[in-house]
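Hi W., the zinc ion complex you wanted:
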Amino acid sequence: MTVGAEMHALVERMYPLCRSITGNGVRRTLEIVGEYLPLWTHEVPTGTQVLDWTVPREWNIAGAHITGPDGARVVDFADSNLHVVSYSVPVSATMSLAELREHLHTLPEQPSLIPYRTSYYAPDWGFCLAHETLDALPEGQYTVHIDSTVEDGHLTYAEYVVPGAVTDEVIVSCHVCHPSLANDNLAGIAVATFLARELAERSPYYTYRFLFVPGTIGSITWLARNAERINRIKHGLVLACAGDSGPLTYKRSRRGDAGIDRVMRYVLEESGREHSIVDFSPYGYDERQFCSPGFNLGVGCLTRTPYAAYPEYHTSADNPGFVSPDALADTLATCREAFAVLDRNRRYVNTSPYGEPQLGRRGLYDSLGGRSDAKQAQLALLWVLNLSDGDHTLLDVAERSGLPFDAVAAAAQALLGAGLLKE
Ligand code: ZN
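Structure:
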């Protein structure tokens, strides 16, 4: 199986679970991810103060349906977990169609699709259904039943850490709070999971911390509980909408010129992939929290078609068929390429800056003999020596010289080995 097909299979497996910002759907999802990665799962009690927020009561649901005047079920949670507004309080009642309509949500412009709606912080109940289903409902008495609980419990999130050579960290975050929505949620989880597995097989320079958190309240909870770690976070990426057929979109951090912003631009441009790069805005996914002014972390957001910009967004059409193995694999490859640059992109100082050091005497020219890219490797040595003044990163060297980053990084390794560079 290709890695794209493996990720798609993971999306399909997680798809039926009814996730929300708390509850057993998140736990079960994290158990499945835990089969791929040894996750560290946290349970934070209801009522815990987290920054300006409070961990809410936990929501769980066993079933829900609407029964029509003729006794037939016209809407059933068992058919799609999008049918119930997330965090609906329990209800068991009989009412007229007019009364029921107050609690029904449809998409008149997309009449065959079920919308996705939530009511996390205002106690309410509701059903979501296709507009064409609503149009076909006859007048009469309807029975509604939602078998849910909203009780003191926990907020669940998980972390996975790939230890690096240094304790400086790169965070990769994805949200785990959406029910049956494939691109918005599950695709990002799948890419993060496989990216983490790949990184764990290497010995990275940075420590990579993967966060599987419910949107907004989960990242806020993590930030509140990790105050002492914040100044170690050097870079980060929020992953979402990672599997649709659209081109890649990178949304810059609030800082706009953070290391991750430079690396993503370089990798997307060098790869020749169709892509767009957009500026930060305080709307979208958890970059909103990581880039809030008190933290102002160098965290960008990588998606394919961005947040809310595709007609399937937050509807029943965002199903596993909307996500393709090839797109998932392409997003994973982009992350892999970006982190390969990020992980080696450091500043060095030339220890012999007065005149060019004699490379031949140190075996640095000899070692290139015979190589078909000897000329490029030689140029890379000279560029790295020249620009290693403590100000320029290796990415600066690559961009200014026009040489591939790999050649520049290899030259830096050779010069470090010869004692001509220091960090
Ligand atoms: Zn969403």
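The chain has twelve helices and 19 strands.

W.
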